[in-house]
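Page 42, continued from yesterday. The earlier attempt failed because a stray header line got pasted into the input along with the sequence. Redoing it now with the clean sequence only.
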Amino acid sequence: PRRIQDSSQRIKAIVDDLKDFVRDEGRQDVQGQADLNYALEAAVRLTSNTVKKATNHFAVSYGENLPYFIGSVQRIEQVIVNLIMNACQALPDMEAAISLRTYYNVENNYVELEIIDQGCGISDDNIAKVTNPFFTTKRETGGTGLGLSISSRIIEEHGGRLTIESVVDSGTAITISLPCYKEDA
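This time it went through. Structure tokens are written below.
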């Protein structure tokens, strides 16, 4: 009975996340105070099965007392889901790791999410092109080349930036930076 109850709770959480994810598609201009940790938590739940099949080493670190950013939690969650899926696909085996962490960058008043994978990396030739629409290195496995393009656009719409650093055969670090909500003084 306990396992059934836990599974039911997990299924409910996934369904709620999917409903949120879909509900926002039609109205992308929804802006409000949004919590990066909340978006990350939902994305981690949505991708948990894929992650379990990709790596034995998955770590998430949630920054404490993060300020809010202005924007749509669902849109940022969509970006995080895409980036986690990409990281999983880049891993050579179950021993390669993925780590995620959120933190507050005081210097520029941004909340940031860093996603680091020990995957195949991205060549210098390709790194400049990965956010171009329809550019993909995964055409044969069904890649459309839209994931990073859409993700990059969503982050820009939020006034933020997406930075990618990568070393072939070593891994990739992607950082999402989102400007914080400023309360009127």
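Notes: Confidence is low (pLDDT under 50) at residues 24-28.
Reminder to self: strip header lines before submitting.
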